[in-house]
Each structure stands twice: as structure tokens, then as C-alpha cells.
Amino acid sequence: MRCARCGSGHLFKGYFKMAPDCPRCGLHFEREQGYWAGALAINIVATGGLFALVFIAILIATIPKVPVLPVLLVVVPIAVLGPIVYYPFSKTVWVAVDRAFLQRLDPNEKG
Ligand SMILES: [Zn+2]
Q1: More confident residue, 109 or 36
Q2: 101 CA → ligand 1 middle, Å
Q3: DSSP character string of the chain
Q4: Each residue of 11-64: pLDDT tens digit?
Q5: 21 CA from centroid of ligand 1 (Å)
Q6: How confident is the model over 59-100, as pLDDT tens digits?
Q7: CA atoms within 13 A on the CB side of 59
Q8: CA of 2 to the centre of ligand 1 (A)
Q9: Which residues surround ligand 1, an ion (CB under 5 A)?
Q10: Other beta carbons less than 10 A from residue 5's beta carbon
Q11: How many angstroms separate the alpha carbon of residue 58 from the centre of ligand 1?
Q12: Considering the entire predicted model, what is its pTM?
């Protein structure tokens, strides 16, 4: 949850509202309309991956007598709360990934 260019924190006003620009270096985060679709994809992959890992691990550990209710009590909160908890992280990770690609395409890119 830090700026991908200067490392500054304090990018969020509350848990869900990200500042439009970095307070230290002025990096504008949302470069174009639809920019945050990348953050959405990162969030889905991260929380979906965690869900799948936990679900498969429990299945492997308990087969053939899978305790359905306890499994649901573990994996449903991951599926429901995971994307909410990971939301701000997914946005800052996406900005870092985007900047890494930009700098690879154009090493002089300052963002
Ligand atoms: Zn910055």
C-alpha cells in the first residue's frame, strides 16, 4: 500500500478511497479510464488462488470424509471477505505492475 515510484505511504483516505495522486511525488495513479481493471484481475487471482489452495488442501487432508460445514465455514469467508480485504493492496500492486511494464517499454518513462 505504498507508491510504486517513491515508496510513500498514506495513499488511502480510509480503507477503500485511494488518493488520485501520490502525496509525495505527485504520480497520478489512474492513467486512463478502465485503468483499475488490472487491479480487479489481480484481486481475483490472489483471492481466488487463496480460496483454491485452502479448499484443495482441506480436501486432500480430509478425503474421503470431507467435513462439509467446517469447509464451508473456512472457504466462504475467504471468497466473500478476501476481495474486500485485499482491495487496497490490489490497487497498489497493479500500479507497481503497470509501472514495471511502462519502464520496460520505455526506460525513460517517469510516469
Ligand atoms: Zn510517490
Answers
A1: 36
A2: 17
A3: ---TTT-----EETTTEE-SB-TTT--BS--STTTTHHHHHHHHHHHHHHHHHHHHHHHHHHTTS--HHHHHHHHHHHHHHHHHHHHHHHHHHHHHHHHHHHHHH-TT---
A4: 999 999 999 999 999 999 999 999 999 999 999 999 999 999 999 999 999 999
A5: 8
A6: 999 999 999 999 999 999 999 999 999 999 999 999 999 999
A7: 7
A8: 8
A9: 3, 5-6, 8, 22, 24-25, 27
A10: 16
A11: 41
A12: 0.86
Give the CB-side neighbour count of residue 53, counting CA atoms within 13 A.
7
Q: Which residue has the cell 478476501?
A: 82
Residues 6 or more apart whose Cβ sits within 8 Å of residue 46: 82, 86, 90
